Amino acid sequence: MTRHHDAAPLLPTNVSTRLRAAGLRPTRQRVSLATLLFGQGDRHVSAEALHEEAAKAGVRVSLATIYNTLHQFQQSGLLRELAIDGQRSYFDTNTSNHNHFYIEHQGKLIDIPGDAVRVDGLPEAPEGMRISHIDVVVRLVKA
Amino acid sequence: MTRHHDAAPLLPTNVSTRLRAAGLRPTRQRVSLATLLFGQGDRHVSAEALHEEAAKAGVRVSLATIYNTLHQFQQSGLLRELAIDGQRSYFDTNTSNHNHFYIEHQGKLIDIPGDAVRVDGLPEAPEGMRISHIDVVVRLVKA
DNA sequence: CTGTGTGCAAACTCTTTGCATAAGT
DNA sequence: ACTTATGCAAAGAGTTTGCACACAG
Predict the structure, then answer these.
(1) Beta strands in B3-43, from DSSP E residues, in sequence order
(2) Predicted model pTM
(3) Which listed CATH number (2.40.30.20, 3.30.540.10, 1.10.10.10, 2.60.40.1090) goes with B2-92?
(4) What is the pLDDT of residues B11-50, one digit of tens each?
(5) Which residues on chain B are in Cβ contact (under 8 Å) with A86?
(6) Among the four A13, A89, B129, B139, which has the fewest Cβ within 10 Å?
(7) Closest nt by CA–C1' to A29
(8) Domain-by-domain residue ranges, chain B?
(9) Is residue B82 a contact partner of residue B91, using CB atoms and an 8 Å limit?
(10) Is A134 within 8 Å of B134 when comparing Cβ atoms?
(11) First and final CA of chain B: distance in angstroms?
């Protein structure tokens, strides 16, 4: 084992272990998708994009399974779901605290490191509620 | 004329004038919808909700027209579109600078006054881009 | 073996579109 | 009259669902 950054998501074995740790059976599909998702740094994917990527990688997975898997990963804390454009859902492999630039005319997302941005002056959460998460989306257009 | 707050959106005449100012013909449907939308303070509506509300108010408007109208109002700066939950679109009658609490399990939005929140530490927009708008959504769950 | 996961196709929700009719100016 | 808006129904995108078959443990 050499150095590692945040996680060590390269070998299928690690992927299997990680899935099992999340309470998910490491099936062929889940392992393949997890490898695609977590094997190349932080990324933002839509269901359709992941489906195509899997197809290109020679992995046969139905779209229904893609959706199931994305949601299971999300519920297990492996992915975070982003509501950006009201039509399509995006899933972010970076589940740590960070925010996003969104380039409107390209539908492209860029991470903003979590410790860069500070949000001040929020009012109290209403009675009986607590803040689960704050999403900051910085929308960009051509200059 | 008595006191006024930000706009004076009550009488049909005002609505018509406002529509015309926005470059939109004050048709029966647009006037009715604008009256519903702007006649009762700041609100957040989905297309379907506005459609039902119009029906209850005895205004006959097709859903297609609701969508057309919402988008026209948005493009004219009368409404702001909010991407909150990735399925449905919400439109906000408050187009000034402010942010939102979102109560996840109720799908309910609450305004946070714009001057309350300050976002610090944003990186520069990438080359050739400029920030058009920053959305802050504070997601709430049961305490 | 037993239970969970997967694939497929159909169903569903939200939204958009095409085109004939209606309405605004 | 001329032009733009509206309604309707059909089409479209994205997502979910139901159920038979497949696979992991």
Answers:
(1) none
(2) 0.88
(3) 1.10.10.10
(4) 667 899 999 999 999 999 999 999 999 998 899 999 999 9
(5) 81-89
(6) A13
(7) C6
(8) 2-92
(9) yes
(10) no
(11) 46
